[in-house]
Design a protein that fits this description.
This protein is mainly alpha-helical. The chain has 2 domains: 209 residues, no CATH class; 91 residues. Helices cover 68% and strands 1% of the residues. Helix 8 packs across helix 9 and helix 14 packs antiparallel against helix 15. It binds zinc ion (2 copies). One zinc ion binds next to helix 11.
């Protein structure tokens, strides 16, 4: 079911002119007046503060409740998040929750099935009056005073702080216009399109490692551009997890920032998915890709694949039981034994991974069904 949608001219003009001024304007100014070190540093500094307020704030804290944060952190997210020109926390989170609930279907506001450019930017060019002011899926956020204050003032904050602050910083260095271009317009264009990549590219290119049923993909390139939001297959499978890149080497600055907040005593109760459960999702996604091959396989080869998969599943079940035991031991303060139990659980997870991967390799050698 497609709703009749009216064009939103304010959004169309804003999203057209900010990158033109941001890129062409900054280039022209730099050509005529030169570039000084503070200018790109201003862009990077504001990109980090605003980008983190979107990734760790709007997204992981407000939309998904993946941790608890102290009010000064929430206020920081509310102010710097407004500078991204991506509407209020309440509006953004409500749309984002709809995206997760109806992903790839008509109600998904940035449904990738309507095309790459729709998911990237075109969806913002249309009004959706029915959804806009109800926010019934964000009752929890409506109880939050900071959220409601920001919902009322986010446009004023964007204009006064988003354009005023970089202009002021520019003025301190002797060029308010350079500040406005580098820290205002260019920075907005960069944050817009890198955020939009999560809705377009991360639903388009990459691997559906954790859930083969939806379009979300793990894509390290998008992670690099968005402070960690590119591991999108994992995120759609475990949206409440405070991490998107779960391996230590995966680029996820938002996860590191949240850990730093915990260290400073400003955040707590981080939601993280047990490792056996993550492995189970990976295995299921992989099996789904080879199901038809197994079904079409000659009896002996098919049996071998099934035997390996059964062994992998048994090991994961044991790993899961050990993981729960480890949590209990940890809660009881048994400092030595919980680590040992966790070590055993992890060992079984790795063993299970070897088994299911070997089953998948075997299945890939079976000719695909016609
Ligand atoms: Zn998504
Ligand atoms: Zn999300």
């Amino acid at each position: 079911m497609q709703q009749v949608q009216k064009k939103d001219w304010v959004n169309i003009l804003f999203l057209t002119f900010t990158p033109v001024i941001g890129i062409a304007g900054t280039a022209a100014y730099s050509w005529t007046h030169g570039v000084r070190l503070w200018m790109p540093l201003l862009t990077i500094g504001m990109y980090l503060a605003v980008g983190m307020s979107i990734c760790a704030g709007y997204h992981r804290f407000f939309s998904h409740k993946s941790y608890e944060a102290a009010w000064p952190v929430q206020l920081f997210y509310a102010i710097f998040g407004a500078l991204a020109a991506q509407n209020s926390i309440l509006w953004w989170s409500s749309s984002h929750r709809v995206h997760h609930k109806y992903v790839d279907r008509d109600w998904d506001p940035y449904n990738i099935k309507r095309g790459f450019w729709w998911a990237h930017i075109l969806w913002i060019f249309y009004r959706n009056d029915e959804r806009d002011d109800t926010f019934e899926n964000a009752r929890d956020l409506q109880q939050n005073k900071i959220v409601m204050w920001q919902h009322r003032w986010h446009k004023v904050i964007l204009i006064v702080v988003g354009f005023g602050l970089p202009t002021l910083i520019g003025a301190m260095f002797g060029s308010p216009l350079a500040g406005l271009l580098w820290g205002g317009f260019l920075r907005i264009a960069i944050i817009h399109h890198t955020t939009f990549f999560v809705n377009s590219l991360a639903h388009y290119i990459g691997k559906p490692l954790f859930n083969a049923e939806v379009s979300a993909r793990d894509n390290w390139m998008v992670a690099l551009l968005t402070l960690g939001e590119g591991y999108h297959s994992f995120h759609h499978r475990f949206p409440a997890d405070f991490r998107n890149g779960i391996r230590w080497y995966q680029w996820d600055p938002a996860k590191w920032w949240i850990r730093a907040l915990v260290w400073m005593g400003l955040a707590k109760h981080l939601v993280s998915t047990p490792e056996p459960q993550i492995e189970q999702a990976r295995m299921s996604a992989a099996i789904r890709m080879i199901e038809t091959r197994i079904a079409a396989a000659p009896a002996t080869a098919g049996d071998e694949v099934r035997r390996k998969l059964a062994a992998a599943i048994t090991n994961l079940e044991t790993a899961f039981a050990l993981w729960r035991q480890q949590m209990e031991e940890k809660a009881q303060g048994m400092s030595r034994s919980w680590r040992e139990t966790r070590r055993r659980s992890r060992k079984l997870v790795r063993q299970s991974r070897r088994e299911w991967k070997s089953a998948v390799r075997l299945a890939m050698r079976i000719p695909a069904a016609a």
